[in-house]
Amino acid sequence: MSAVSRHAVSVSGRPEAPPMLFVHGFGCDQHMWRYVAPAFEASHRVVLMDLMGAGGSDLSGYDEQRYSTLEGYADDITQVVRDLDLRDAVLVGHSVSAMLVAMTQLAEPERVSALVMVAPSPRYVDEPGYTGGFAEDDIDELLDSLASNYLGWSSAMAPAIMGNADWPELGAELTESFCRMDPEVARRFANATFRSDHREMLPRVEAPTLVLQCSNDVIAPVAVGEYVAEQLPAGSLVMLEATGHCPNLSAPDATTQAITTFVSSLDTVTT
Questions:
Q1: Does the active-site annotation cover 7?
Q2: Would the N or C end of the chain have less CB density within 10 A of its end CB?
Q3: Confidence check: pLDDT of 169 > 80
């Protein structure tokens, strides 16, 4: 089975236009881009995919060892880029997928020309001189809770991750999305995500990169977004007037506008 089929890839927009590939974060699927991706269909070839274990992906291709690290997920994105023969592509990654699309850019620099990182974090654990947002004990507790009662963990964590308590329907949607994942797949993905450290990778990502940071994010605080943008050789930071970890749902207009401005600047440089 091709990567396109395995990851339920959908393609819309202008077939001959520059491609944009949108990749969702943990516990989500491509449906999470429904308020943002369509805005680019008039000017781009828009590609959506589901990471392994999410949405319409084919779990028969799941391999415990392959997906014990984030590299396995990044390899899937890279294979989709190759199978579709994408060129001069802009990859948009939300949350953990911000690091995944960076890995793909390093693997295929001739195919991937720019990145958009939405609420990224290369390292979730605080260390001397670095603020990740969590103590090591916090991560241990989070992962233990997920492993012992995934549905309960989802019901408690999803609304907190989403933020925007005045829009409870958004938290409910994320809870439902979390609950659709196989608990064991989710546990391994969460472990790979929250114990990862990809800080050393950032200075090697030379492609123009937009970092979108929310003003109040319990998963990726402002200090993390600032760090990512500073470490990227061609990084730029845009602070969104949005709260929570999923501005593609809670602040889609601001998210779309920021990406549009960034993509337009790339066109200016090219021409």
A1: no
A2: C
A3: no
